[in-house]
Structure formats: C-alpha cells, structure tokens
Amino acid sequence: MPINIPNNLPAIAILKNENIFIMDEQRASQQDIRPLRIALCNLMPLKIVTETDFIRVLSNTPLQIELDFFYMDKHDSKNTSKEHLHIFYRTFDQIKQNRYDGLIITGAPVENLEFECVDYWNAISEVMEWSKTNVTNTLYICWGAQAGLYHHYGIQKYPMGKKLFGVFEHHITDNKIPLFRGFDDTFQTPHSRYTENRIKDIQQHPDLTLAAWSEKAGVHVVIAKNNRQIFVTGHFEYNLNTLKDEYERDLEKGLDISIPENYYPDNDPKARPLVKWRANANLFFINWLNYYVYQETPYDWI
Q: Which residues pair with 296 in a beta bridge?
C-alpha cells in the first residue's frame, strides 16, 4: 500500500530497510485518486516504535493512505520527545473537525487502572464519541479495545493475576466474516496484557459479535453488529522483537514476568524469536481496509 507520510518520519528508514513500500509526498501528489484518510490515536509511550509497527502492517494493498497521527495532550508523554510530537503529531482539538475513513486507537500501559482513573479518560471518551459521526470504521487495539467495549457497550475488564504474554492460537467463529477472508482455520497472534474481557459477556450482548477467540488468550476480535467498530485484544501489529523487548524491560524492572509463550525456539530467550503471525497480520489489515473502510466510505465523505 502506498502510504503518504512525511518524508522525514523516523519510521521511513527502518521500513525501507525491511523492503516495505513507502510513498513520499511528492509521488503521492502525482496519483489522481482519493486516498483513504486514516487517523492513528497513539497512546503508547514509545510512539516511534508504534508508528513503525502500524505503518508496516498498513503497507500491503494497492490503496493509497494518508496517515494522520494524534495524541492525548492532556497526558505528559515522557518517552517521546516534544520535538517529535510537535513535528509529526496533532492534538485531537486540531483534527476533530475532520472526517476520516478509518481510525486506529492503540493500546496503552494503563490496563491495571480503572478506566475513570486514567488521566486522559475524559479526552479519549470524547474521541470515541466523535468517531461515531466522523469515522467510517474504528479499530481498537488491546487496552484501546477494552476501553472501547466499556465506553460503548458497558463491557467490563477483569484482572488476570498474571500477565498474558506470548503468541497464541486462535479460532474464527464464522469464516464468512469478511475480516477473516483468506485466513486459515486457526491463526496465531501475540498478546501482552494483565486484564481480559470475558467471552460470555461478549456473547450475551446483542450488539456485539465474537469473531475470534483462543482457549488460552480468550476474547481476541469483537465486531459491532453495525460493522462500524472492531475491537482487537491482541497485537497483529507487533514486530519480531516487540515481545523480546517487553520481556527484557520487565526483567530489568524486577517484575514477575515469564518467558513469552510460543515465541522463542525451544523456549530459549537467547535464541532469535520466530514470527508466526506476519501473514495473518497483513491479511487482517488488508481485509479491514478493503471491506470495512474502502468499500463503506462514500467518495465525497471527506
């Protein structure tokens, strides 16, 4: 997918080295098509890592994308420079007059807090309300998924006691769901979280469909019956070393952390991890952009 992003975004050099196709602003301006306009609400501390991960998985269809980054300015970002935010990001107040074909709300390392105790809860709630009228389809990731399920549908999250951490096998509830066209009967995805939604809560809600689940990881993908919202508790977007970096970070902090499951060959953290989810991740985002964004957005929506 040609993604039109600023020429000096740090992710560009990383992704070009991985043979990911990135379109610069000059080339994009010469294509006589209306690109999909996608907003990314980045709640993660290491914003450059998250930017790179999402650009990577959005880079594999013939559709052109314009990607706008924004953040919660009510929260003091300590792990990303103010210069980077100033150059590449906008606040919600600066973009809320826009309409977008798609919106991605990322995870955030606040899952052990009650939703209302998160310092930007009111701000992210405003974003979620705004998305109902200004966005064709919103994709919620990890804590973002739990926050969206709670805000829109009153679905609670529950502590798991120990971190769910690793790469897990999942099942699809209905292979006719467009989001999973082309998927195998089972597929693997990384998870990294301390809380969960419960399958029975999703199944009992009349406005939600459980689309993918796991014996070990539980709820994975939930789709609103109106097809305007998709909630993903796992991380299709994770790169090769994300779980490794999280594991080593938690060890340095002295946290009670286990080796990520089904990740290292022979469970050896000195070995190079194996990527078992890349093809699924690419197909998932292709299907999302095609069936839930491109096919549903009016040409003159923007």
A: none
Domain interval for residue 104: 3-239+278-294
pTM: 0.88
pLDDT for 25 equals: 54
- Specify whether 84 is catalytic: no
Domain count, the chain: 1
Active site residue 235: yes
Separation CA 302–CA 300 (nearest Å): 6
Identify whether the C-beta of residue 40 lies closer than 8 Å to the C-beta of residue 7: no
In a domain, 69, yes or no: yes
Q: Please check whether residue 182 lies inside any domain of the structure.
A: yes
pLDDT at 231: 98
* Beta-bridge partners for 140: 105, 231
CA distance 90 to 35: 20
Residue 254 counted as domain residue: no
Q: Which of 51, 142, 196, 246 is catalytic?
A: 142
